[in-house]
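## retry 2 of 3
previous attempt timed out at serialization; input unchanged, resubmitting
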Amino acid sequence: MLTPEYLHALHNLPLAAKRAAEGLLHGAHLSRRKGAGMEFSQYRPYQPGDDLRRLDWRLAARSDRYYLRESEVDTSLVVHLVLDASASMNHQDDNGLTKLQYGRLLCAALAYVATQQGDAVALTVLQPAGLLHLPPRADARQLPRLYHALETAEAAGRFPDAATLAPLTARRQPALTICVSDLYEEDGEIERLLTRLRAASGEVLLLHLMAHNELEFTFRGAVTFEDLETGRQLQLNADQQRRAWQQHLQPWLRATAQRARTHGFDYHQLNTAEPLTAALREFLHRRNRA
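## retry succeeded, writing output
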């Protein structure tokens, strides 16, 4: 099993991304459209105005009919990866991985898959000090750029304010935006950002990271919890509060998913203790529908 902790233990983001993706990509095909490409697809009758260079003159000589050779060309897509790097992403799961570390692996694997599919990939790391943005490119050097940006990204502070995010939402370019976040927000700021990105770019795939120890509340005994973004602390007995936690968590998760889908986002919850396969498969599914 290519578990998140195994991939992280490789200490090599390019290798981890390739390992995570290569099994999924085995047998996968690029989506295609008809056009003037390299791989022959079919013949179709000549119509006035068609490019005569695509006419099959040998077939015309044999049949006295005029047909054009149609080929298949790869469809390309702009894939915009958006990684939340606010301090709450420093939350650590039982396997030792933080949400940010899992998010790095996930974004790197998504970038690898998108590149293999011939897509242009962009990356934005959301940091309170300013956005780290790599514009979309499909050249051979883009993956190393993305890997370096992800490897050096650190989670700190609160989610960026509207002024910091303004350049991101001002760009209007058709794209599949994939946001990786734990969705911890004070006043709907992540929801507003994604709503603007959907208006500016089109489709939004929202990958909601939750740690296993959050979902199952695996803590034991007396525990001090700290809000990683505000520093506020709360002391409690985990065994006594487990049921109450679950009673609050499940309605919040349902409401979060419902709100996201109401805004037109494709929402998927991910457990940071589980392999990346589900998210990569969903990306390929969304891409092939594009």
